[in-house]
Design goal:
The complex is a heterodimer. Chain A is mainly α. Chain A has helices spanning about 15-25, 40-70, 80-115, 125-140, 170-200, 210-240, 255-290, 295-310, 325-355, 360-385, 385-395, 395-425, 435-460, 475-505, 545, 560-565, 600-615, 620-635, 640-650, 650-655, 670-695, 710-735, 740-765, 775-805, 815-849; strands spanning about 575-580, 585-590. Chain A is built from 25 helices and two strands. Chain A has a two-stranded antiparallel sheet with strand order 1-2. In chain B, helix 6 (about 290-300) crosses helix 7 (about 315-325). Chain B contains seven helices and twelve strands. Chain B is an alpha+beta fold. The chains are: A mainly alpha, B alpha+beta. At the A-B interface, helix 3, helix 9, helix 10 and helix 11 of A face helix 2, helix 3 and strand 7 of B.
Chain lengths: ~850, ~325
């Protein structure tokens, strides 16, 4: 199946013609509205960064307004209503609309360069992620036009954010805006993981992966799990708002600590999601500045350790909630182990620079500023992980100081360092060194003036999130210093922005490799062309640009060199790049990458319509919005006939000895599906956690003496899903042995059983003696049931479309239909397993446990 | 604008003036401990402060040494590549942090809830503190009187959203969570006033949800309790009239006074309002002028609260103040 039929008469093109066609294939639409269809990683990366940085500037202005209010005690510059909205929007903007999205954009932009691949694995998903992010940010801020701005803080503790107390529409703006931003993040996470693992230059084994890519590999996986958890949490809270479920209503069996657990299970990894990619930037810059990186393996180990441990720390945000003390010490221990991980990275960087006298240019200056600030923030982080001390400083300005040291020091300084460092790679010009130094010193001094006094304010008893304070307390002078510092800090950012704009036209021309770096992004012409890597480079070491400065083939006759040579400017009529073995980086196949399309925008518009409809309580719009998204998705995934023909007839498999991977466990479709299933599994895991958490803290279960649903009858209903799963598997087997009618019949069977299940489930839910609004037990019962329905719906869609497609084009049978059949079978296998677990949890666990 | 509301603003303005005028400096500080628990934590803080300052300067020194000197091409840091990373990245944190973790276990063991102590129930409201002495049948607000030198057990609950109880000079903080009950304790070594404040953001007036712990000598405390339990002295004529206004003007809808239960207990119990030192949750001193201003237009002093402006004629207002101040 991997071997493709080749066209008999070979098309011969002159090298010039080949190059022209290749560039045409990779060309991206320009002008309005065609530009909206762009999927190019450079363009989307830049759009992402510009949008996120704009939100950063807005968030910064909100912060300055708050500092004006707090500059003097009992200030009347603004009232509590305004102040409370400002700090909510400031935190929300910085965490959700700047720190992660900006770095995702930066990764989308830089990683293909560094990895030596022509684009990311799912270019249209990159576009979808960007549009969804942009819309979510705009929705967040639209609240201002309707005077509906949330004032519940960025972690929105229930019940302050629950229906009984929250301003209803304002919290909707916040929740659905956040939900959309999480979807964007999850999409980017899946995209980056697959790209880093499978799309690399040949020879780039895992052990030769640039540290920035290592940091992102860990981060992208963290995003998938952390953001999915938050997505479920925000969904539950939004259901409380719009449907009237009782997850966060203590008088109806809900539990407020459930929100805190779910939120911080996201919220703590979030901090490391922001920090880890920044350490990747630092590693790259330290390496270039010192001409070496010592302790590569230690740094990688530290990154992996951080990623794992970050999921075991969430309770250290909940020390004051009255949880059993012993459990707190478990989390305190884990918090301290993470100090080892951060310490290891810092000492590896110091070791690398030892005695190398690196030039104190803007990127390195910002890295040094980072080390100073981050080490201080890390040390106060260890302090707040110490349980009794946290009881004092939790929710005070000490904490505000700590997390600004960690986040601004740990992420913003490295981001700025990265901007100075990679600016020439992107624009061909250097940023002004003079302005850079001025900006750095404003930032560094302004930052410490702003946030250092906050440690003292916290110890002197100033809680966070207060809009005013009494002159009788001794906080006034510290607050004034902090406010002055904030404006110096703000001026530093103005200088930075000015530098970015000024240097676009006036910056000095950059050399080919201005910092003496070792990684592939400096191989690309400046500014980079849309058609990246006309010939994919071959990597022979961890530092390709140091060890073989222009990457001349060592042995032109080697197999790998032969492959990249025959892929120079090819394929010229469809977009493709090399797929490599995860561990060794050996080429394994050629994969098609999707080209420009409006569909990501259409799907994003569908998502946006759904979010706006939820805010406006116009629920009738939801099915329409859903339809727009689903139709958009189908068109998006449906490859063009012309492109398929070109792939089927391509000579590349003959010339390179590599298959064009369309089917099987190496295909991008398969990898994408595995990610989707991972996300869905985590959605269910989170829901089951909520189920058992609610049960653990309930006197009786089901609550309020509700009867347990009819489990023997439901066994039959859920049995249909097991059968449907078995049939989907049978369909795949029939497909492999080319029994076409068995294949079609089995698919039809799966589809029919899914419909039967819907009928049964609808009948069962209607007949239940409780509503989703009855109590928390009923709420969680319904939401798990509904989520299963969504999964079954996707499965039915997959089986149904495969069935229809099996009648369409004969040629597709072994290829794209094969992938469709295989993914359907995989998805149904998952559905059957999940259905079994849902049945066990909802119907059996109340009886058995 | 009506005459009455103008009057209300006038009172409010007077009240504001009064606050600015007669203010004493207060502390609410974790590093000025006044009780055993806070002292333990402060000790831990200073230990960490010195240890971590040393670590911070060690790292900075190494960083400076790393970048300022030019050494031969293949120079390695002291202890070699792996040795340096292991010593600084692993050994140093382990060496500093492990004893700290053990010490903190010791500290929190020392902070254990005393078995047998006076119990006070504290219930958080948006944005004030309900304080009950279940053994003595006393209900008050925003002021917790305790005997100095003795541990006091607190049972913390919330009537609405999550709040956090925090008197930094006596102990750390503990959350008040609706649907749950947390227990906590405080102890003041010396008689005195210790300011506290809600530490968990709880809505519009989170900033003005203060309170005081007033530690009395055990004798004073006993007599304070006894005085609360005595029958009330008869009301004077003006106070009588104030009591009538309290019922007629609608105050009674939200505020309970000794036996006269409010329809909805939205506001603090006023049975002992006359004996309290502050108004509006440690916002302003409890003087007759401030009380009049507060009754006239509380939202002007504390925007966002439930208590509406009252628009009482001046005579009625004065009578009401006289009545309330008599409620010791």
């Amino acid at each position: 199946m991997t071997r493709l039929a080749t066209k008999e008469q070979r098309e011969t093109l002159s090298p010039l013609e080949l190059e022209r066609r290749y560039k045409e294939t990779w060309d991206e639409p320009s002008g309005f509205p065609a530009r909206l269809a762009t999927v190019d990683n450079i363009r989307i990366g830049v759009q992402y960064m510009v949008a996120a940085f704009s939100f950063f500037l807005i968030g910064g202005i909100l912060a300055l307004l708050m500092r004006v209010q707090l500059a003097v005690p009992e200030n009347t510059f603004m009232g509590p209503e305004v102040y409370n909205r400002l700090f909510t929007m400031h935190g929300t903007t910085m965490m959700y609309l700047f720190a992660v999205p900006f770095q995702e954009g930066m990764a989308a932009l830089l990683l293909p360069f560094m990895l030596g691949t022509r684009d990311l694995a799912f270019p249209r998903l990159t576009a979808l992620s960007f549009w969804t992010f942009l819309f979510s940010g705009l929705i967040f801020y639209c609240g201002f036009f309707f005077d509906q701005v949330a004032d519940v803080g960025w972690f929105a503790y229930t019940p302050l954010s629950a229906p009984a107390f929250a301003q209803p529409v304002a919290i909707d703006f916040w929740l659905v805006g956040l939900g959309a931003a999480e979807l964007a993040g999850i999409a980017a996470g899946a995209e980056l993981t697959v790209s880093i693992l499978w799309l690399r230059a040949p020879g780039m084994s895992l052990a030769r992966l640039p540290l920035y890519a290592w940091a992102w590999l860990a981060t992208a996986l963290m995003i998938v799990f952390a953001f999915t958890t938050l997505l479920v949490a925000t969904l539950l809270l939004e259901l409380d708002q719009s449907v009237g479920t009782q997850f966060f209503n203590a008088s109806k069996g809900g539990n407020h600590l459930l929100w805190q657990h779910l939120f911080w299970f996201f919220g703590h990894p979030e901090v490391y999601i922001i920090f880890l990619p920044a350490t990747g930037v630092v590693s790259m810059i330290v390496s270039a500045a010192s001409g070496r990186i010592l302790g590569y393996t230690w740094i990688v180990a530290a990154i992996i350790l951080t990623a794992f441990l970050s999921f075991g720390l969430w309770v250290h945000h909940m020390y004051t909630t009255g949880l059993p003390e012993l459990s707190l010490y478990f989390f305190a221990g884990a918090s301290l182990v993470i100090a080892i991980a951060s310490g290891t990275q810092i000492f590896a960087w110091i070791a690398s620079m030892w005695g190398r006298r690196p030039a104190l240019v803007a990127p390195l200056l910002h890295v040094l500023g980072f080390v100073f600030i981050f080490v201080l923030g890390g040390l106060t982080g260890v302090m707040v992980a110490i349980v009794p001390f946290d009881w004092q400083v939790h929710d005070t300005y000490f904490l505000v100081a700590h997390f600004h040291y960690v986040l601004i020091g740990g992420a913003v300084f490295p981001i700025l360092a990265g901007a100075y460092y990679w600016y020439p790679a992107l624009t061909g010009r250097m940023m002004s060194e003079r302005l850079g130094k001025w900006s750095f010193w404003c930032l560094f001094i302004g930052f410490n003036l702003t946030f250092f006094p906050m440690h003292i304010m916290g110890l002197l008893g100033m809680p966070r999130r207060v809009y005013t304070y009494s002159a009788a307390l001794e906080w006034s002078s510290y607050n004034l210093v902090a406010s002055i510092g904030a404006f110096i800090l703000g001026f530093g950012f103005v200088l930075f922005v000015a530098n970015v704009l000024y240097s676009l036209k006036r910056g000095a021309k950059a050399d080919k490799n201005p910092w003496g770096s070792d990684s592939l992004e400096w191989l690309v012409p400046k500014p980079p062309p849309l058609a990246l890597f006309e010939r994919i480079p071959v990597v022979h070491s961890r530092h390709p640009l140091w060890d073989g400065s222009d990457l001349e083939p060592e042995n032109p006759q080697s197999e790998v060199e032969r492959i990249t040579a025959s892929m120079k400017h090819r394929p010229h009529d469809w977009r493709a790049t090399l797929l490599v073995d995860v561990l060794t980086g050996r080429p394994r196949g050629i994969v098609r990458l999707a080209g420009p399309s409006y569909m990501p925008l259409v799907v994003a518009v569908g998502i946006m319509a759904a979010t706006i409809a939820t805010i406006a309580k116009a629920y009738w719009v939801l099915p329409i919005a859903g339809l727009i998204s689903v139709v958009g998705l189908v068109i998006w995934l449906w490859p063009s006939r012309r492109e398929l023909e070109q792939m089927y007839e391509s000579e590349l498999p003959n010339d390179t000895g590599l298959p064009i991977v369309m089917v099987g466990t190496k295909s991008l479709g398969w990898l994408g599906m595995v990610f989707l299933l991972m996300v869905l599994s985590w959605v269910f895991a989170t829901l089951f956690y909520a189920y058992f958490y609610l049960r653990l803290y309930s006197g009786e279960w089901p609550q309020d003496g509700l009867s347990i649903p009819n489990w023997p009858l439901s066994a039959i209903g859920f049995g249909t899903l097991l059968l449907a799963g078995a049939l989907a598997f049978a369909a795949w087997q029939a497909f492999r042995s080319d029994r076409r009618w068995s294949f079609r019949l089995a698919l039809a069977g799966s589809f029919g059983l899914a419909i039967a299940f819907f009928a049964f489930h609808a009948w069962e839910l209607v007949g239940l003696p409780f509503e989703p609004q009855t109590n928390a037990y009923a709420s969680i019962f319904y939401i798990i049931s509904w989520t299963l329905d969504v999964v079954v719906f996707i499965g039915a869609m997959l089986a149904g479309t495969a069935f229809v497609r099996s009648f369409l084009v004969e040629k597709d049978w072994p290829f794209f239909l094969g992938q469709h059949a295989q993914l359907t079978s995989l998805f149904w296998g998952f559905t059957a397993v999940i259905a079994g677990i849902v049945y066990g949890v909802l119907y059996l666990s109340p009886i058995v446990l | 604008m009506t005459v009455q509301s103008k009057l209300g603003f006038a009172y409010a303005a007077t009240a504001c003036g009064a606050i600015a005028g007669c203010r004493v400096n207060e502390t609410q500080s974790a590093i000025h401990p006044a009780g055993p628990a806070a002292a333990e934590i402060a000790w831990l803080w200073w230990l960490m402060f010195w240890a971590f300052t040393a670590v911070f300067f060690l790292v900075l020194t190494l960083l400076t040494m790393a970048i300022l000197r030019r050494l031969p091409q293949d120079a390695l840091p002291p202890l070699g590549r792996t040795g340096f990373i292991v010593a600084g990245g692993i050994a140093l944190p382990v060496f500093v942090v492990t004893p700290l973790l053990i010490l903190s276990l010791r500290t929190s063991a020392a902070l254990h809830l005393p078995e047998d102590a006076l119990t006070i129930e504290v219930r958080g409201h948006m944005w004030w503190w309900e304080v009950r002495y279940p053994d003595h049948g006393i209900v008050t607000a925003n002021e917790i009187r305790i005997p100095a030198g003795e541990p006091v057990r607190l049972e913390l609950t919330s009537a609405d959203v999550i709040h956090s109880f925090w008197v930094p000079s006596l102990n750390g903080k503990r959350d008040l969570i609706p649907g749950l009950q947390n227990t906590f304790w405080i102890q003041a070594d010396q008689p005195g006033r210790y300011r506290g404040q809600c530490a968990e953001y709880c809505g519009t007036q989170h900033a003005n949800m203060g309170f005081h712990v007033v530690a009395l000598t055990p004798n004073e405390f006993r007599s304070w309790i006894a005085k609360r339990q005595q029958p009330r002295p008869p009301l004077s004529g003006e106070q009588q009239r104030g009591a009538e206004i309290f019922r007629e003007a609608g105050c009674v809808k939200c505020h309970t006074v000794a036996g006269n239960k409010a329809q909805n207990e939205i506001g603090p119990d006023l049975t002992h309002i006359g004996s309290r030192d502050t108004l509006g949750a440690a916002l302003i001193p409890n003087t007759p002028g401030n009380l009049a201003g507060w009754i006239a237009n509380a939202p002007a002093l504390k925007p966002g609260i439930e208590m509406p402006p009252t628009y009482l004629p001046p005579d009625d207002l004065l009578a009401l103040v006289a009545y309330l101040e008599s409620l010791q």
